[in-house]
Amino acid sequence: MMKVISVIGVRGFPGVQGGVEMHCENIYTRLHKNYRLRIYRRRPYLTEVSARKFKNTEYVDLPSTRIKGLEAVIHTFLAVVHIIFRRPDAVHIHNIGPGMFAPLIRLFGIPIILTYHSPNYEHSKWSWVSRMVLKWSEKVSLSCAKHIIFVNSFQMAKFSDKIKAKSSFIPNGIDATKIGRSMGLIRRLNLESRNFILSVGRLTPEKGFEYLVEAVNKLDEVQHLVIAGASDHDTSYFKKLKQLDWNDKVIFTGYPQGEDLLQLYSHARLYVLSSVNEGFPLVLLEAMSYQLPLVVSDIPATHLIELPKDSYVEVANSDALAAGISDALAKNFELKHYDLSNYNWNSIAKQTLEVYKQVLKK
User: Fold this and answer.
1) CA 84 to chain centre
2) Please, are residues 278 and 302 in contact by the beta-carbon 8 Å criterion?
3) What is the DSSP string of 51-99?
4) Could you tell me the pLDDT band of residue 362, with boundaries at 50, 70 and 90?
5) Model confidence, pTM
6) Each residue's pLDDT tens digit, 323-334
């Protein structure tokens, strides 16, 4: 009989914005032949695309608020109650916040796999109380998990030998891509091919978009910056970014998918990652797969991938970011060839499958 894996800690997929969501979609659409997957999704985030079904995959769509700090708590609690009654063979928790309920799952004898995406308590959007809760969640989820998957080897290295003994480093991945020629969206946005800067991500403070918006507004050589992403909760951060764009250089597209996103990557002149905190930035792998020149914040996550030294700029510094962008634009444009052989989703799914086999043997 096929074993059942319940998955919590993800807003949902397909068609839901976010790095964890993209990670889960790529992993679980490759594992469904080996296990029956029960994915717990948050109703407010689901889109028309989310109706797409995958073989041996069951969606459990539960209510959830969009109130910051309560969203994951309420949804995860409801999911755990459902899990206790349905008794899957294992539970896969994504990130440390939802891991606060790991002791309850363990109490009922259900083995836990934890994927540690990032230390969320380092994100500036959280209050002091929320950070303390997240640190406690980290402690209990690491303790209760039978196996931990780290997408960031630097994060894994921070923990004790006891934690590392039951852990694996399995990075994020990227699908093979092909640069597109279509320009429907590009024309609708009044852009020219190879004449705009691109950055992709949710509109949240840890992405450091305010430094990027300030930087491009200091540069005469930048005509347009496209920020492809949408707000999670309230729009205050988006409003702040709009206020910083005093020269009207920034185009906010919302959350693009499919062909629209392909066109943005295919026709950008330069990709910039301005984040102040990341686990393992999937968008950086995407930009590299489209062979774009890069300017990135000098943070541990961007050193997980080998990049030229001149790609890095000081984090949270708009002047340094402006200088890096200016230097990059001064060079003749040419496609860059990056070695992405270690970031193949099929290989990553196989490594995850081996973790499942290991945990379910115990």
Assistant:
1) 28
2) yes
3) G---TTEEEEEE-----TTTHHHHHHHHHHHHHHHH--SEEEEESSSGG
4) low
5) 0.92
6) 999 999 999 999
